């Protein structure tokens, strides 16, 4: 029947695409709803992919023109003193993120998924052992991959994200950093309380962003222009650049929601809170979890596996170490401890956990710490669209 599906997924970003592709490759009838007509429009992700995602998932098949390999991390204290880190064999991929989203949409179509762009999720209700989605049809399973303010979660009585960061990122098309082979990360309680700022070279230019703890009672817009005037020279960003596309939005940082699934409805990605509490990244974790959910749904449909709701809950990463680091980071209200401790073993260990997991970091310079502190210079960075 044309309006009968095994699975309806709401959202076509990384997590939604992973779940849909896993189920479609296993032979299920899958429909994906995406409210945007262009899946590469109005993005809220930095699109930075870690090595594990590049080597263990479908993202490893991304065209070379859409990715750029970065093997170093430069971590800056508020004074702009820095340490340069790497781990043997480890790297990140910065991306042409709009291009990646369009590539994922093509992959969905190639695998027989009924992708409906420009189609928003409005409502759903239980009908026997299935969900009826308004304007779409019926499906045994409904997956919400529709962001931190998930409508699927609201309509299906699932958990919701309780803690957020608010982030903004500029794109500078065709720009080039003086040090393009590093991910530049900046600690600043003044500009980024509760989080960090970053600058990175991507395939089409430079991306520079800033995020801070979100307090609904005292909402604050990140001062990204002031931040870039302060740190731009240290990060190798040319002055007087005019940004192109701007991304902004809420980023979950409180860990997996509860409940994450029940009665045939399951949350993945940002909707499920599967985002690192420290780095606010999560493409790999979200992809792996959503892929596991898609495979579990397919196995259950074939009467070969346990409840997908149970699998979704058990497979959700808990980020225990990173949540502990976030707790400690949030309780340091001043900048001076980072200036003092940047080169210390405890902070280096924390940096290892954040950027390279359990793998041992190695300094990239002969000394343990580069102590230069470039003075911020004048210049303007124009506001975004």
Summarize the structure.
This protein is an alpha+beta fold. The protein has helices at residues 14-25, 51-56, 97-110, 151-156, 224-231, 283-301, 308-315, 320-330, 336-341, 345-356, and strands spanning 4-10, 30-34, 49-50, 67-70, 72-76, 82-86, 92-95, 114-117, 124-127, 130-133, 137-144, 164-173, 182-187, 196-202, 205-213, 246-252, 261-262, 265-267, 362-363. It has a single domain, classed as FAD/NAD(P)-binding domain.
What does this entry look like structurally?
- This protein has 385 residues and is α+β, with helices and mostly antiparallel strands.
- The protein has a single domain (4-363), classed as FAD/NAD(P)-binding domain (3-Layer(bba) Sandwich), CATH 3.50.50.60.
- The chain has ten helices and 19 strands.
- Helix 1 packs parallel to helix 3 and helix 1 runs parallel beside helix 6 (283-301).
């Amino acid at each position: 029947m044309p309006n009968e599906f095994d699975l309806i997924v709401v959202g076509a970003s990384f997590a939604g695409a992973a779940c849909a592709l896993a189920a479609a490759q296993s032979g299920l009838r899958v429909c994906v709803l995406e409210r945007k007509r262009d899946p590469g429009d109005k993005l809220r992700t930095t699109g930075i992919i870690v090595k594990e995602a590049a080597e263990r998932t479908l993202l490893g098949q991304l065209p070379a023109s859409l990715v750029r390999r970065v093997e170093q991390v430069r971590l800056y204290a508020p004074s702009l003193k820095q340490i340069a880190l790497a781990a043997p064999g480890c790297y990140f991929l910065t991306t042409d993120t709009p291009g990646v989203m369009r590539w994922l949409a093509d992959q969905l179509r190639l695998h027989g998924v009924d992708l409906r762009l420009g189609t928003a999720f409005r409502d759903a209700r239980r009908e026997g052992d299935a969900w009826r989605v308004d304007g779409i049809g019926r499906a045994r399973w409904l997956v919400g991959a529709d962001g931190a303010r998930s409508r699927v979660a609201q309509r299906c009585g699932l958990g919701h994200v309780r803690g957020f960061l608010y982030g903004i990122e500029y794109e500078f098309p065709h720009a080039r950093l003086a040090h393009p082979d590093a991910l530049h990360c900046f600690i600043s309680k003044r500009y980024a309380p509760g989080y960090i700022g970053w600058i990175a070279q991507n395939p089409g230019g430079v991306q520079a962003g800033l995020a801070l703890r979100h307090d609904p009672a005292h909402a604050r817009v990140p001062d990204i222009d002031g931040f870039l005037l302060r740190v731009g020279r240290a990060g190798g960003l040319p002055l007087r650049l005019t940004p192109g596309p701007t991304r902004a939005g809420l980023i979950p940082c409180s860990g997996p929601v509860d409940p994450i699934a029940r009665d045939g409805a399951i949350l993945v990605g940002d909707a499920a809170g599967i985002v690192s509490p420290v780095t606010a990244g999560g493409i790999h974790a979200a992809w792996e979890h959503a892929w596991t959910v898609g495979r579990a749904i397919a196995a259950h449909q074939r009467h070969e596996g346990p409840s997908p709701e149970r699998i979704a809950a058990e497979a959700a990463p808990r980020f225990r170490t990173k949540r502990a680091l976030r707790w400690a980071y949030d309780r340091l209200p001043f900048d001076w401890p980072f200036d003092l401790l940047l080169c210390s073993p405890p902070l280096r260990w924390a940096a290892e956990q954040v950027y390279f997991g359990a793998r041992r970091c190695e300094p990239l310079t002969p000394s343990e710490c580069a102590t230069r502190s470039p003075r911020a210079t004048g210049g303007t960075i124009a506001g975004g669209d």
